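Input structure tokens:
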């Protein structure tokens, strides 16, 4: 029997539509509003994309256009002048610029980048201390020039680059563009002439003399001249006319037109020298950054006939010049070896030590501290070893070698603060009585080592709860208690008088429970470093006019139950690091740790162990 279909009423249809077009709260949904919101959002999004796309495109078109402008021929920048120069002669160059565009250029300036070998004497118009000339607005069709003069201090054949950079902002544009011009200049001669004479051959220990002659060929006087000697490490100077300074330089000062001069040095090659040795003398001037700038360089080559007996001297682990702090030991190590075929007899080793200056005859070496394991014979500041002290020196067969060690301390502080430049010169001398069956009475020297004494800087560190006047500068319970905060004041003081210090840092690691706050300093900055685990006090320099300077800050702890009965570290590895401007040495001073025991605070007597 067929199933009859049920008739759907209007009421049921409306009920179904109500279910579709009403939300869960029974509120009718406004479909027109929803549709309008979607359409408006889409329009806004499309509009923003188009807007930013236009900005991006215009920006890149502008950059592309003005980048081409910066490199185009219509913006003129050139350096005019001789492409060949005579070292020491006055040279003139002109930097020409012109804006051939239709629009002005804003914020225009020209920077000159000159090689260090070019010593600028004048400029028109005047440049600032960075060799920059500020033009400002450069109108369309306008230009100008900068004229400079100076001297090249460079060796013949070298090529030097002069560079000019024009920086500017095109009208209605906020970016800076540049145009660059360069000129390469070759050095093909010098206003000075000279020659260097020396021996073609010499044996180790024998005297060698080198003589430099020089002449100012120009028609004008030259000032600020100097000569630099580049010597082999094994060459020991005995005499110099005129006197040579510690940097192997002679200051000539002013030399008149057509004037001449000579420099002579005498010395010998040490036991380590062998084969071709090269000596160079450079005449020029010392630049502002202490770099030597040459006008001429003269060279000599000497063939050194090597010795059979090779010696070396090491002081504090170094075979070259070094620095040392007051009160520290000088550890000497002398090695020797017979590299010849013949047996050497009656060898004597002499250590000549010269500690200067001497205040009232007192040496800066603490000779009673001398540890002389090989029983060298001491006379003044000389120690000698013969076959009496070391039996093996009586006869040294081919291939045999030996070592002599000794050490001596510096005195704890300078004898007089009126002296500034203390140093210790050490030269090892060797005497050989006989080589095989041939009596030679040969005398040789090894290279001199100079140890410069660093400044008398000191670092004092204190952790305090009370200051020197017995006023409370800390807070919280003493001794420290579990769960309660106790704060302490840390004082750091640097004292110094001999040499200026540079790049000074006092640093310390925070203890496990330590919290830093309230850093202050008389100069520089006392604060946490980027790791937030280290305290640092930094200063650029400390001149000798300031003998003492301080910093302070707070360190707080809140002990835990596991700390009961223990003394806690507030700061660990307290260290000062500084460069001695006079010696060039690095001064490092360790001040240990600061703890809750507060040993530097005389007013605290309860101890520093954590209590419950």
């Amino acid at each position: 029997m067929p199933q009859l279909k049920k008739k759907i009423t209007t009421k049921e249809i409306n009920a179904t539509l109500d279910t579709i077009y009403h939300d869960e709260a029974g509120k009718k949904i406004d479909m027109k509003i929803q549709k309008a919101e979607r359409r408006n959002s889409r329009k806004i999004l499309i509009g923003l994309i188009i807007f930013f796309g236009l900005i991006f495109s215009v920006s890149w078109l502008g950059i592309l256009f003005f980048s081409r402008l910066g490199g185009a021929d219509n913006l003129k920048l050139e350096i005019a002048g001789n492409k060949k120069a005579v070292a020491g002669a006055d040279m003139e160059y002109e930097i020409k610029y012109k804006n051939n565009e239709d629009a002005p250029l804003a914020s225009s300036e020209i920077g000159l980048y000159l090689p260090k070998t070019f010593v600028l004497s004048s400029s028109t118009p005047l440049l600032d201390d960075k060799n920059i000339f500020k033009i400002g607005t450069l109108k369309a069709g306008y230009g100008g020039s900068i004229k400079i003069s100076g001297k090249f201090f460079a060796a013949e054949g070298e090529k030097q680059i002069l560079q000019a950079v024009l920086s500017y902002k095109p009208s209605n544009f906020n970016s800076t563009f540049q145009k660059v011009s360069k000129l390469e200049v070759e050095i093909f001669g010098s206003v000075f002439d000279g020659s260097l004479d020396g021996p073609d051959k010499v044996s180790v220990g024998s005297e060698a003399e080198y003589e430099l002659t020089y002449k100012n060929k120009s028609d004008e006087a030259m000032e600020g001249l100097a000569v630099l000697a580049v010597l082999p490490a094994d060459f020991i100077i005995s005499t110099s006319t005129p006197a040579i300074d510690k940097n192997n330089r002679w200051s000539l000062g002013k030399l008149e037109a057509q004037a001449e001069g000579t420099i002579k040095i005498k010395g010998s090659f040490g036991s380590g020298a062998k084969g071709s040795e090269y000596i160079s003398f450079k005449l020029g001037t010392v630049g502002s950054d202490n770099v030597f700038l040459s006008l001429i360089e003269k060279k000599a080559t000497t063939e050194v006939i090597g010795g059979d007996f090779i010696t070396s001297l090491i002081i504090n682990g170094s075979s070259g010049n070094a620095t040392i702090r007051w009160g520290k030991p000088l550890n000497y190590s002398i090695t020797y070896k017979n590299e010849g075929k013949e047996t050497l007899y009656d060898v004597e080793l002499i250590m000549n030590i010269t500690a200067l200056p001497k205040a009232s005859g007192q040496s800066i070496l603490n000779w009673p501290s001398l540890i002389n394991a090989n029983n060298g014979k001491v006379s003044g500041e000389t120690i000698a070893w013969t076959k009496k002290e070391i039996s093996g020196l009586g006869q040294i067969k081919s291939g045999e070698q030996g070592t002599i060690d000794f050490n001596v301390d510096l005195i704890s502080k300078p004898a007089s603060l009126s002296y500034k430049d203390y140093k210790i010169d050490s030269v090892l001398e060797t005497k050989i009585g006989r080589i095989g069956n041939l009596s030679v009475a040969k005398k040789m020297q090894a290279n001199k080592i100079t140890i410069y004494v660093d400044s008398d800087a000191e670092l004092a560190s204190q952790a305090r709860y009370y200051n020197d006047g017995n006023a409370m500068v800390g807070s919280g319970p003493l001794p420290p208690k579990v769960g309660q905060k106790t704060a302490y004041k840390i004082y750091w003081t640097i004292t110094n008088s001999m040499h200026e210090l540079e790049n000074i840092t006092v640093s310390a690691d925070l203890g496990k429970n330590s919290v830093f706050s309230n850093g202050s300093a008389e100069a520089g900055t006392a604060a946490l470093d980027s790791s937030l685990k280290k305290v640092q006090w930094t200063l650029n320099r400390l001149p000798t006019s300031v003998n003492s300077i301080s910093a302070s800050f707070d360190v707080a702890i809140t002990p835990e139950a596991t700390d009961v009965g223990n003394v806690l570290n507030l700061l660990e590895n307290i260290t000062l690091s500084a460069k001695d401007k006079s010696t060039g040495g690095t001064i490092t001073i360790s001040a240990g740790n600061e703890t809750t025991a507060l040993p530097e605070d005389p007013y605290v007597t309860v101890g520093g162990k954590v209590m419950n």
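Helices lie at 10-21, 31-70. The first helix runs from residue 10 to 21.
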